[in-house]
Structure formats: C-alpha cells, structure tokens
Amino acid sequence: MISYIVYFAIILLLPIYAQMKVKSTYKKYTKVRSTSGMSGAQVARTILDANGLSDVKVVESSGFLSDHYNPMTKIVALSSHNYHEASVAGAAIAAHEVGHAIQHKEAYSFLTLRHKLVPIANISSNASWIFIMIGMLATFPSFMLLGIVLLAVGVVFQIVTLPVEFNASNRAMDQMVSLGIIRNEEEPHAKKVLSAAALTYVAAAAVAVLELLRLVLIYTGMTRDE
C-alpha cells in the first residue's frame, strides 16, 4: 500500500515540480536583459543565417512558452514575449529552437528517429490502454501484454526525445557564445533556463518508464496466478 502511495506521489508531483521549475526560472530570467539587446526573433535569425538556414522563417506564436520548431514547414515559432523582448531567457529559448533547425539540417540521428516514431507512438499510445484495460478487467494476460508492448513504443519516444533536447540546448549555448549573443556572466543564467526546460522532458520520460514498469509487474502477477 505504501509503495503505491509513493509511486503515485512521484508520477503526480514530478511533472508538477518540473512545470513550476520552468515557470519560476523563466520568469526570473525574462527580467534579465541580455547585453546584446537582441530580441528572441533577432537571436533566432542571427543563428539561422550564420548556419546557412536562410530558408527557415521566424514567426510569432500565441500562448505561453509555445516556442517550437516545425521541420515540415521550416518555421521557428516563438511565443510573443520571447519574440519581441531582449532577455536572457528569450535568447536561450530562441537559440534552443534554432538548435532543432540545425539538427534537422544535419539529419541528427535522434531527431530523425523521433520524427519517424511520432505517428507510430501516437497511435500505439492511444490504442495501448484499450488492450490494457481489457486485459486487467477481464483478466486476459495476452491482451495486457499487447497493451504493454504498444505502450512501450510511446516510452521509447519519450526516451529518444531526451538526447534531442539536450543536444539542441548544447548547440544553443555554443551558438550564443560563438556569435557573441551572450557574454560570460550570462552563460550560467542561460544554462539554468535550458536546464529547467529540459527537466520537463526528463520528468515525462521518468513517469512513462515508471508506469510501464508498474504494468509489467501487474502482468507478471497475472501470469503467475494462472
């Protein structure tokens, strides 16, 4: 009983902590103006052009921290504050999204794998719970196993996402430093923003792995009782 309480506390609290960490870190460093005085849009454009990516557009997107890179349309979308304002947080996030564009240009292996997994993971993750619930409620181990296998595809997607995000952040730091977008004293601040953002992906992967392990234990219990 206690182990279940601890388990559910982890899968509930870890994502909440990650989101709170992102918001608090972002809020703190949006108030720190970058010495370059460049807005997020200017940062993105500068790094893109320096890497021969003049065909990638930078646009403003609505929503809080809605920043992303779309490889299909070759668009770096930045949330309004990051797009217009000159802050360390905005520069770091803009550079991170451009990091994905550079990965795309170079056919970074983990990014390529993640793109291939997207449609498969979406379908398998949704379908998995149908089989899992049937297997648990009707005590059909074979259905349970099929659901676990389908869910595992989604877990693999979450794990593959981690090196993609970490690599994009490393590229972001290298680009910002080499192009003089941030100075030495600003580097620790930018790293904190990127690390906080990465924590959300780590939390999602950890929760996915824990849930998969829990279901595997339930399945082994079912087969042992047969």
Automatic annotation (TrEMBL):
InterPro entries: Zn_peptidase_2 (IPR007395). Keywords: Membrane, Transmembrane, Transmembrane helix. It comes from the Bacteria. The chain crosses the membrane at residues 6-22, 143-166, 193-219. This is Zinc metallopeptidase.
